[in-house]
Design brief:
This protein is mostly helical. It has two helices and two strands; from the N terminus they run E-E-H-H. Strands 1-2 form a two-stranded antiparallel sheet. The two termini are 21 Å apart. The mean pLDDT is 87.
């Protein structure tokens, strides 16, 4: 089953709802998290702040950029 995310109330398109952007953002988030969370956990052992930044990257950078780049 494919997860579908819907974001309504946006002014980015005429129908005021986004489906494709948030759904692809979720897919990109999961793909980045699969790689970055284990790496961040290993780095966290030696450098706490850097490890936290790496583990937070999918949520703070990947998902918002993908979601904003697709207006529908």
């Amino acid at each position: 089953m494919i997860p579908i995310c819907v974001q309504c109330g946006t002014g980015g398109n005429p129908c005021r709802c986004k489906v494709v952007g948030p759904t692809l953002g979720l897919v990109a988030f999961v793909a980045a998290a699969v790689v970055e969370w284990p790496v961040g956990a290993l780095v966290y052992i030696f450098k706490h702040a850097k490890g936290r930044r790496i583990m937070g990257h999918p949520a703070t950078h990947v998902y918002p950029k993908v979601t904003r780049s697709i207006p529908i």
